[in-house]
User: Fold this.
Amino acid sequence: MKIFIIGGSGLVGARLSELLQEKYSIDNLNTSNGVDITRPETLDIIKKDSEHQLVLHLAAKTDVDGCEMDKEMGENGDAWRVNVMGTENVVNACLASNKKLIYISTDFVFNGENTPESGYKEESIPDPINWYAETKFKAEEIIRNSELVFIIARIAYPYRKEFVQKKDFVRAIKDRLANNQQVLAVTDHIMTPTFIDDIAVALDKLIETDQSGIFHVTGSQSLSPYDAAILIAEKFDLNKNLISKTTRAEYFEDKAVRPLNLALNNEKIKQLGVKMKTFREGLDAIK
Ligand SMILES: NC(=O)c1ccc[n+]([C@@H]2O[C@H](COP(=O)([O-])OP(=O)(O)OC[C@H]3O[C@@H](n4cnc5c(N)ncnc54)[C@H](OP(=O)(O)O)[C@@H]3O)[C@@H](O)[C@H]2O)c1
Assistant:
């Protein structure tokens, strides 16, 4: 199968490209080769194509605090232009050429309040509380309300072994500890980190079994950033005493508000036989 990937130069997309190309024929569409999803004419390559069956779309403005600064510009700001209008352009290109779309979305669509005991499920009601999340959810809505055959794969706190262009939270903490720097870690936030290699396995399964709909493609352990930092220090024999506790209110003061409890339930993807690692297992794999 031939697949177009948009956003394949980023933290998640670059690893997915590497892994999926072992099985699929991957063509990366990037700003460096002229594809800008905010400019629909650059998506003609998708519209006019009849060889690729699938578009994997990860392109986004992902800087949560940068997106928040775009809020006052509303639909004229980059966050909306890229995440919402850009996705709408991708949807139209897929519709015009009869392609299935896989859209990578986020745990941030949930508000983190009154989180179900078993974690947010695919049918839980989103309620974004910052601008990045708002734009990602609006993009989900555009896809869901279109005539497309689609998969929305919500991921959370993705991490991988290495990627020089951008640090994920695991490497950010690990590098600070290795350099003998203090780490301030939030205690009153719950996240569900996702090992990026597992996302590739999950997408392969979703493609192979021709699924559609929403899937939580997230790890199998929810924990606070503080507990994650301690596990990172233990796994890589780094100094735990450099880690101190902080709160969301303190850490994100003047920044975009973060949801409280983003425990996500991944039973639906596990039911397809995909093993999503716990955070401990992900760290083992990286080590
Ligand atoms: N990282 C996270 O913590 C996280 C958590 C949950 C969900 N996600 C979602 O996962 C996806 C990938 O995230 P990531 O962290 O890998 O992102 P990233 O490293 O910030 O990369 C963003 C990608 O989007 C592309 N892009 C941005 N604007 C574009 C435009 N106008 N036209 C075409 N391409 C454009 C970039 O291409 P260029 O380099 O060519 O500009 C790059 O490949 C995103 O959809 C994000 O919302 C991420």
Notes: The longest strand covers residues 100-106. The longest helix spans residues 78-97. The CA atoms of residues 131 and 249 lie 18 Å apart. Strands lie at 2-6, 25-29, 54-57, 100-106, 150-155, 158-159, 183-186, 194-195, 213-216, 243-246.
